[in-house]
Each structure stands twice: as C-alpha cells, then as structure tokens.
C-alpha cells in the first residue's frame, strides 16, 4: 500500500516562517478573529501532488478551518492574503516528505514557558525524534539562510 502511494503521489513538507518569526495566515482555528487571521512564529503544512496531474495538488493543514484536505489554489488564496508589511513577509522551506520523516525531530521544548507550563496543550501523539536527534526544529524554521545540505531544498 505504501509503495502504491509513493508511486501515485509526491508529498512535500512546507515550513512557513521568516527572520522575525511572524507570519500571518488566515482561516486558522487558533485565531480569535472572524476571518481566522493569526500570526504564527512558524507553521507547517503538507503538500501532496498526484504524479500524473499538474492540477491535483492538495494541502493538509491541521490548523485550518478550510476543507481537509484543501486544493492548493483555494488554500493559497484563502490562507496567504496579501499583507504588504515587510516584517510579515513569508518564506517557505519545502522538503520532500521522505527527508522530513528521516531527519526531522522536535522535543516540543519551544512550546514550554519559562515556568514549565505549556503555551498551548501539546499534541497527544509522542514527540518526533530520530536516531540522530531529539530536537532540530530550529534548523527547519531558520529562514535566514539556505542550508548547505542535500537534505534541504532552497528557502523561497
């Protein structure tokens, strides 16, 4: 089954952030506003494209109020509204899903306040780790430079 999926789809993990760690997205559940706008320090989505089609591209965003999955065109139009203020310009680090699964790790330490309490309740699933790392999240959301590695694509 997994081989069938790999043969039919290309999947990419997209990290969205910037040097200021302030990126606006709309249609987000965590928002307090009717338009769903929120400023994230970073955000992560999954982009899945059918190999035999240029049109069939879906976005999987666990925090969106849009359909799940959502077609790429609708997602980008609704979630990435123009906010022409330089400190909010978004950058995107897009990596193949296989790379993400092989090298990404987060122990969720970025979600803990100085007093030891959580900023928000953590996910119910265990933290993600690899044999090489328990926490390399900052490497993925660092948008100040392109990484000198075959594991990472160029920051856009």
Automatic annotation (TrEMBL):
Catalytic activity of the protein: N-terminal L-glutaminyl-[protein] + H2O = N-terminal L-glutamyl-[protein] + NH4(+)
Superkingdom: Eukaryota
InterPro entries, per database record: N_Gln_amidohydro_ab_roll_sf, NTAQ1, Prot_N_Gln_amidohydro_ab_roll
Gene Ontology cellular component annotations, sorted alphabetically: cytosol; nucleus
Keyword Hydrolase recorded: yes
Domain Protein N-terminal glutamine amidohydrolase alpha beta roll positions: 7-146
EC main group: hydrolase
PANTHER family: PROTEIN N-TERMINAL GLUTAMINE AMIDOHYDROLASE
Assembly: Monomer.
Protein name (database record): Protein N-terminal glutamine amidohydrolase
Source organism of this protein record: Rhizophagus clarus
Lineage: Eukaryota, Fungi, Fungi incertae sedis, Mucoromycota, Glomeromycotina
């Amino acid at each position: 089954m997994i081989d069938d999926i790999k043969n039919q789809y290309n999947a990419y993990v997209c990290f969205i952030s910037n040097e200021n760690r302030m990126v606006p997205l709309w249609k987000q559940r965590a928002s307090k506003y009717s338009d769903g706008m929120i400023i994230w320090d970073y955000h992560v989505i999954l982009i899945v494209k059918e190999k035999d089609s240029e049109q069939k591209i879906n976005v999987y965003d666990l925090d969106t109020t849009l359909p799940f999955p959502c077609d790429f065109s609708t997602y980008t139009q609704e979630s990435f509204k123009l906010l022409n203020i330089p400190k909010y310009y978004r950058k995107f680090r897009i990596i193949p899903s296989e790379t993400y699964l092989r090298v990404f790790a987060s122990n969720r330490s970025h979600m803990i306040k100085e007093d030891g309490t959580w900023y928000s309740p953590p996910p119910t699933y265990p933290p993600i780790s690899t044999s090489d790392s328990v926490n390399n999240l900052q490497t993925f959301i660092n948008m100040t430079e392109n990484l000198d590695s075959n594991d990472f694509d160029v920051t856009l």
